[in-house]
Write a structure and sequence with these properties.
Blueprint (H helix, E strand, L loop, with lengths): L13 H12 L9 H8 L6 H9 L3 H16 L2 E5 L1 E3 L29 H11 L5 E4 L9 H14 L4 E4 L2 H11 L3 H11 L1 E3 L10 H7 L6 H13 L4 E7 L5 H18 L2 E8 L15 H14 L5 E2 L3 H12 L6 E4 L6 H4 L10 H10 L3 E5 L6 E3 L11 H5 L1
Parallel strand pairs: 1-9, 1-10, 2-3, 3-4, 4-5, 6-7, 7-8
Antiparallel strand pairs: 10-11
This protein binds iron/sulfur cluster (SF4).
Length: 403
Amino acid sequence: MNQWSSTQSHAGCKQDWQERLTNSLANTQWSKSITPIADKIASGKRLSIDDGLVLYQHLDLTEVGRLANFVRKSRFDNFAFFNSNVHINQTNVCVLSCRFCAFRRSKKSSDAYSLDIEAYVDDLSIYADYVDEVHSVGGLHPDWDVHHYQQLFRTVKEKFPHITIKALTAVEIKHLSQLSKISFSEVLTILKDAGLGSLPGGGAEILDDEIRSIICNGKESSEEYLEIHKIAHEIGLPSNCTMLFGTVETTKHRLIHMDKLRRLADVTNGFQCFVPYPFLPDSSRLPEAQCATGSEVLRTIAISRLMLDSIPHIKAYRMNIGDGLAELALQYGADDIDGTVQKESIMHLAGSTTPLDHDLSRLSKLIENAGCIPVKRNTTYQKFEIFIPPKPKPRRGLKMAHN
Ligand code: SF4
């Protein structure tokens, strides 16, 4: 693909996109409360937490979305990204019980499962011909230490060298460090040497320890989440970061969360993508959750784009928010919709009805419907290809109908 290179997709090229942004905002009119924020963005100044609160309270959601969309377009023109991946959740056995989680099971539960290395590889082999990423997160298994994952990743890379392994959230890294009695850094180094290519961002929830003690007691602390990602970046493992919203946090908690992530990104330049997703409620988990509406999801995605100036990509995670809202989110600052996914349990057990398939044409149509150009990317946003869907084969009998 001509127009893109790896450096263009990352934060290092701010000067270029800032110039485009300044020019595109020069003659645009904004309402009174948004004008100072638009001026800051046009001059390359970072938005404050208070600016974020103004954006959360601003009545005209479309104006917030329009501002976010200016930033997205300055960075990526009309290109929007997706990839060809498969999610394999290696086990649902977990020693913790986060209150929002519909996925975890105790080891003795009748529907507990744990894929051994052979079963994992068998599962992956079904998709291996048409994916270039496997995304694996799961429960904190009491018996699987770092050597289990070392062996798993080595086996995957031996059998499928073209597949990038994006696996293990920060809490899984912490769990392996505790089980194996080695540091975070040693865990990450062992796994990187075995073939781990990047870390997903899951487990960030809200980076506030009071909120964490309510919704995910026992999980890694806010500091530990940031420390694990910092170490990953330092040893050359890029990562994503996430935010679970709509539980018991305030909008200020969300903005402080974003601020912590962008400050780490300032130092390491290692976050590729931010993935904000709402809590999917049911009657049993976290009954006190506020639950985010569709407009709040779009607003939070738009504000993420505006606040996170040092994290290049904002993902509309369609497994969580659905294809319809993901399409709309591309007009509210998001530039990525994740991938084909194909197998996924965590969001689907929590209530997601997003289709699991390997139809790249359907994904590209979703992007085109949002007025964007679909670009297939690899895990680390270093290889890009404008996706041109294969022409549908003429159906038998169609010709006869015209005769
Ligand atoms: S969110 Fe993760 S750590 Fe928490 S209970 Fe579920 S599987 Fe376990």
